[in-house]
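Q: Joint fold for the lines below.
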Amino acid sequence: MKLSSIFYPAKRRLQSNFISPQNSIPLSASCLHQLDHLRLSASRFLPGRMVGQRPSLRRKAAVEFIEHRKYVIGDDIRFIDWKASARQENIFVRQGEQPKDVLVYILLDCSASMAWGDPPKSHLALQLAAALSYVTLSQGDRLALLCSSQTPLKLWGPVSGKGQFTNLVHYLNALVFTGQTDSRALFQSLRRLSVGNGLVILISDLLGENDLSEALAILPSPTWDVVILQSLHPMEVTPPLYGYVELQDCETSEFASYDVNAKAVSSYQKKLEAWFNQLDFACTQNHAFYHRVITDENLEMKILPDFRRLGILQER
Amino acid sequence: MIFANPLGLIGLLSLPAILALHLLQLRNRKVVVSSLFLWAFLEKQVHGARFRRIPFNLLLVLDLLIATLISTALAQPRLKLSVPFGRSVHKIFIIDTSTSMMAQDASPSRFEVARQSILGQFDSSRFGDRLTVIEAGKQARLVGDTYLNTVEEILEAIQSLQAGSAGTALREAVAFAEALRDPTLPYQIHIFSDGAWGITPLDDLNTSNVFWNWMGKAQPNQAVIDVSVVKNLASEWEVQALLANFDRQPVRRLIALQTQDQLIDSYEVLLPPRQVFPLFWKFEANSLSTVMVSLTGNDLLPQDDRAVTALTSANLSTALRVAVVANQPKEIFKALNSFPEIEVETYAVPDDLPAREFDLVIYHQISPRVYTHPSILLLDPPSMDWLEIENQVPLNAWVANQASPLVENLDSSGLRGVKVSRISQSPEGFQTLLQTTDNPPEPIYIQGQHVGSQVWVFLAQISSGNFTRHPVFVAFLGNLIRQIARPNFPANLKVGDPIPLPSFSQYPLLKIQPPKGEAISFGSNRPLEWSATHQPGIYRFELVDREGVGQTISVGVNAGDWQESNLLDLQRNLPSNEKQPERQLLETQYFELTPWLLALVVVLFLVEARYAWR
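A: Joint structure:
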């Protein structure tokens, strides 16, 4: 059975704008085709438990030659390079690379603020999660999902193989966005539920996140490789509000009245920029990668090329 | 800026409504945001404080601006612009030809300077300009108009203008100019005058189209403004003269009284300032034809330094003699008696008419035997060898065939039952004055020469209908009486005043000798009055009647006048040419702003739409 025939139904369903009762994840066929040639970048120091398709620092005696090593007692004599040993005074064994896999954790912020906007921020977040999951599964890595809205928090996976993508789509479509954002609790839950270290991708708006550095300290480098993808709506970057407005928080339902004028909007944007810098600094300090996406950006035309340019994704 | 429809400004009442709507919208504006986390740095407003000031955001400003522009556009505003005129223009020049313009404080005279200024304006006029010249003398008169005359004709008429008239008909001249102005062109009225108008207020003439050009300055002057001569019971001649000193200082001048052939008196007199000073003389003389009082020495207006009066004009003031030959002369006699100084005699048959001369003989339904009298009126004549009557037709109405004093004020309305004798053809050399309105018209009133007499033939039957009871009958006879009446020459008059001339039928030969220049002779083609009396002095009229008897009549024409001689108190409260700035010829244009305002409204709508739907 060909792999393409296994994944065809999922691809077919995505292409035909499969709509679940909760969410919809429109990933076009061309987008999936583009993702087939990409893989997630991950640190070489991440441990891999199974044989995968990623190069690793581990070596083993193998016919596929990488380098020589002196023979030690116990080595399989079938991999002694007799020709090289004849030219030297020592006996050398032929060594090859042992490929590994990476455990990829995708943490999805399912707070109520992610469902805000038109289209909601969750739309792009689900697209990102599906796309990155597809890349993970298609390159033979293991995938696990953790969504913040579930109580109690429960890890979906780990799974591997493209055949799991259909289940993943069903899982994503059924997600409900409610509650508040708390990345620290999410990281702590991951640490508790994790089956091993790996690449962690957090998709969140990070609203209300005052001390991201404290949360990142839970997943220290190099045993954890953390990527923060902040999803924001354009109206959050440039609020189109003027005059006296009464604002209501969609997560807490709290009210606050403000007099918004041009000067206040300008000050708002300055403060927002400072907050972005603060998040970037926290990620840099904790060897994590930080990137911000705006929900009006096209996934196929803008976001994926940006990921390739920034090194989040790379060609296989 | 003016508004063609000011009611459109009612739309401005929408401005408070728009403001209220914005406040109302602001009051109910609740916005759900993803998180208040991002807004935490802004200062929260106390609940209810949002009405402390009006929220002037861009949308509100745009709404107010759009409402204002629409309201203004509904009012149809027009911008009144005065732009430099580039097209042709109608320039009307009014030149003052009164006696004061003869003052010599400008070289050679005020009038000459004004004339040269107008000629200069003709030289500097552009192609397409319309130029009109009006004379403001005793009466306003059109000198020339490029619409009616050639430029050469107008220049010649300007050159022939002469100053010298008592009074300036400036108001009439300006009204004349306003009536003549071309409505399709902007116009300017240039007035060339010295301001010697007495106390006539002319402030209302100072409109934006009137340009004043003052000639000369206020100057002192002395004048003899009147002289009269009477003969008292002791057969002495009494002369009274009025001398005027228009100066702030008393002036000594030498006064002289002289007759036509000798100097009677001469002495130095001290004229008080700003006063009129009477002088009297009494002397004996056998025959006296002219008396002249003069001031010797020179001032700026020498024309008014003497006044002359003549004493021979009363010789001709005798009654007009009229004979009526008719079977029933009662109605004619009654109408003629309504005129003063007429001697009327009635005769039943022509043979009874005496041989002595009558000024006018009226035949009613009778043909004359002889034509020895100078003027003959034939009323409803029978057929004669030179005038054949065909039949009678009823008269509906008549109309004047040519302009003549004989047919002035002859209105046929109200005439009933009047018949007209129809002639086969008009006699040779006769002109038709009145004719019926029928088609073809029938002559009613004709005039011409027949056997040495001036003959008028009235073909309407005056005994029919209500003709003799109608006012037109008296008017008809009055016109004829005035035509043949003898002239009554005045003893003296002011410069510019016309002198009536005697008719050709009474005095076939007439010769006028003005104070300066050549004598002018007139035959049958003469004007009714002689108006070329601009030069002060004695005008002599030599008359020869039908019998060949000649006589000479003198008329004194004087320039001295209360207004014209007063060169000191000039009425120049109007802007003078020295202080008057050079006014550029401007044209008033109205610029419609409505389409531009509406276009601006559309642009603002687009801006608002882009801003609101962003």
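Q: Anything notable?
A: Residues 15 and 29 of chain A are 6 Å apart (CA to CA). The radius of gyration of chain A is 23 Å.
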